[in-house]
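As a point of orientation, let us examine one representative protein, giving the amino acid sequence and backbone structure tokens.
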Amino acid sequence: MENGFLQNWPRVSEGQKMQFRIRILMFSIFLLISVLIWFLNALSKNYTSDIEYPLIYTDFPANRVLVGDLPGHLDLSINANGYALLKYKVFRKTVPIVFKVSAFTLNRPGQDSTRAYILTRYLKDQVSRELPDDLQLLEINPDTLHFHFAGRVSRVLPVRADLLFEVDKQFTTRDGILLEPDSVEVTGSDLILDTLKYLTTERIDLGLLTKNYSDQVQLKGVKDVEQSLSTVHCTIELERFTEVQLNIPVEALNLPDTLLLQAFPARIKLTCKVGLSKFDRMDNNLFRAVVDYSVVDEQTKVLDVSIRNVPGYLLSYEYYPKSVEFLISKK
């Protein structure tokens, strides 16, 4: 039955198919022509449109530094016919407007000498000259540019290395991390420099050091601050270390002039770990082993010993005993 229904369905000849295709093609052509005529007619009319125009600031007041950010573009309200607007938006090669701040009178709000503003309507003539003749400038937004200035100063700041590394267990660093130069001149706003105590290098992970390190390292920049140098030379020298044993006499602090304190034992044994280059500096007179008489009362039997005058180049130290017995007598 299905085959019979299909057999009774009117067949479409190739000629009919061709006529249908021609009608579709003609309709598409007329539709395209109609759209084109409408589009050309629309372009002939005038429109108001908004465009962004980049802005570059130069020539700030002498000995002044800009604080904060300024708009990087102006929003321009433009009136022109559709042809001109289309041409501008499709083919434009926008050259930023160079805004010389010192060429304009800065308005001061009240007595605040650090703040100023300029009304952008005074830029209208300059902006109009940058636009094609067939574009009419109506309005500029924002209507006001606000400036916040600070004093321009220079200072010398120390540099700190931000290096991650470990030293092979056979070695130690000879003099820590050496930077050349160890300080750099910076220039910028006094508001910013008042908060800066030092500069740092970019962080570098050196891993495990088995030999001396020497290289240029990059300084980390600070926004709105000029640096006289962008790199410093960093050196890390390695050396082997040794142990030194010293016998240090025990001294009493806060002892009245009329009394004598004798410690048992009278000396403590100090074991120091130090780099070979510092070995000659190790001496019994370099350190002090002290006890504090001010803590003594009737129940006190022993006094704790502490080590003083420990040099910074010492890698580590141990001492024994940590406490001593004592005997007090009159002079």
